[in-house]
Design brief:
The structure is a single chain. It contains three helices and four strands, in the order H-H-H-E-E-E-E. The longest helix has 14 residues. The protein is an alpha+beta fold. It has one domain: Nuclear Transport Factor 2, Chain: A (Roll), CATH 3.10.450.50. 18% of the residues lie in helices and 38% in strands.
Length: 139
């Protein structure tokens, strides 16, 4: 797991406190992309509380049980696209690729995620996995 004084896992190059950490600590995000990046960072740090809080109540699971899952080492995030619905600025999507290692084997998830802004706050609604496969970039 990365230390919170190293570069933010989201790939911004800033430390988490001036990047995703401020959102995890309670500051509202301005965009769905910021929420997606902060959720990735929360996965890196194992912050289940933030992940659940930022998940829309209609699709949110009761728990993620991150501490009971096979340990992952998150190794990179690439945002491919951030789109705001032209008919409704309170709906957005983010397409990304997240790379990780499990048992020393590099893997990646390519996801198209949907977000909704409600009462001034962005929420993750759901995501469609485009592919989940061994990574061709082994770090």
């Amino acid at each position: 797991m990365k230390k919170k004084t190293e570069a933010c896992p989201c790939g911004s190059g800033r430390i988490p406190a001036s990047c995703c950490g401020q959102f995890i600590a309670g500051r509202l995000v301005d965009t769905a992309e910021q929420l997606m990046r902060s959720r990735y960072t929360a996965y890196v740090f194992g912050d289940e509380k933030y992940l659940l809080k930022s998940w829309h109540k209609k699709t949110r699971p009761e728990a993620l049980n991150l501490d009971q899952q096979e340990p992952l080492k998150w190794i990179g995030l690439k945002v491919l696209n951030h789109t705001i619905d032209p008919g409704n600025p309170d709906k957005a999507s983010v397409e990304f690729v997240a790379r990780y290692k499990v048992n020393g084997k590099a893997e990646k998830i390519h996801e198209f995620s949907r977000f909704l802004k409600q009462d001034g706050r962005w929420y993750y609604v759901d995501g469609e996995i485009m592919s989940s496969q061994p990574s061709d970039n082994r770090h």
